[in-house]
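Form 7-S
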Amino acid sequence: MNITNKSKWQVRVAALVIFLLGFAAGALALNGYKRWGRANAESRQGRFERMLDSLQLNADQKTQVHQILGDTKQQLDALRKESEPRVGEIRRQTDERLQKVLTADQWKQFQQQSEEMRNRRRGRERSGEPRK
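Output:
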């Protein structure tokens, strides 16, 4: 095998090794991220339960508090679902009005930045970070 062919094979092997290491690192990071998300959700529930424990509720109070909070969640979910169409319509109208004011490039940039903000907000909501 001459030096040129040997060099080519070394480059190919190095590229393959780098690719495999990157793939393994990505898989490990994804697994860690998923674990972190589950742990974070569990820790929120645990903090809430600890707060209730700190109130030293009796069994009847604990049952009533859970019932009240469950009812409230159902009502808020229903309200959110009920208002979604109206919110969507307002956003659509806003987009139409903005498109009339902005240039095509500005509109594209506006859409990208809006999407980035929504993604960051969703990330905060999933992680339990408070809204600003």
